[in-house]
């Protein structure tokens, strides 16, 4: 005769050790070794009790590397299990051993924190290098794209090969990527083929192939110094942004004396200062501008960059 889940759960909850185990797992997600340290039992005993509780659907496990972390999440229990657990919980909480368990949990969590602090104390001087080796340089900056509104339509203006469009596309409703170079657009098309919410359009910054007010956000990254008429370009971008609350993010170079950039890379302008950009912003009809110089990357050989956010 098949056993009913009720009796499985009654069996699981009838043992005081398992009740103590559930009490700590209701508060914290712990590994087997951490549970062993709290309950002061052999690891094999802890594993056996966890298996019983998992079979009864009272705890769940999450893989974390080579370990499993166990947790009792009351929200995941069905109504019958919650009704059974409530009186057992109240009774188990009165056990002297259970109160000692809670004190030992604090020690286990403190030990986790101590291990992290020991690592950082010994690695502080090398942390930037270690992080770059593990995740690449400035990877954390790409995560900031997640701050974009999920419903936003974004213009990647002067998109080049589509690097920024590729980063932004998963986080927003749609991206309109514009460039006047057919070669760049060809490369972008190959790169962005899997992103159905990216639309590639050929056109110049001074005459965008975008309807009035169609964009919530526009990005102009290392593009403005190629533009023949920056003031006209900002006015055109202002037209394409929504009338209220639209934003333009500019990343470009502060004024510099690298005259050779005109010949070697086709730069039209040798950087922009905050005052000039502010004047163009006012003339274009933007309501506010925030301008900040960016810290130089250790490996960077070019001029200092700035970021400016213009708001409609």
Tell me what you see in this structure.
With about 300 residues, the chain is an alpha/beta fold. The strands form two sheets. Strands 6-5-4-7-8-10-9 form a seven-stranded mixed β-sheet, sandwiched between helices. The chain has a three-stranded antiparallel β-sheet with strand order 1-3-2. It is about 45% helix and about 15% strand. Helix 1 (about 5-15) packs antiparallel against helix 4 and helix 1 (about 5-15) packs parallel to helix 5 (about 80-90). About 25% of the residues are buried. The longest helix is centred in the middle third of the chain and has 28 residues, at about 95-125. The model has no long low-confidence stretch (mean pLDDT about 85). It has 13 helices and ten strands.
Main beta-sheet strand count, sense and barrel state: 7 strands, mixed
Structural class: alpha/beta
C-alpha termini separation: 72 Å
The overall pLDDT, averaged over residues, is 87
SS element count, helices: 13
CATH topology of the largest domain: Rossmann fold
What is the molecular shape?
Answer: elongated
How much of the polypeptide forms β-strand, as a percent range?
A: 15-25%
CATH homologous superfamily identity of the largest domain: Vaccinia Virus protein VP39
How many discrete domains?
Answer: 2
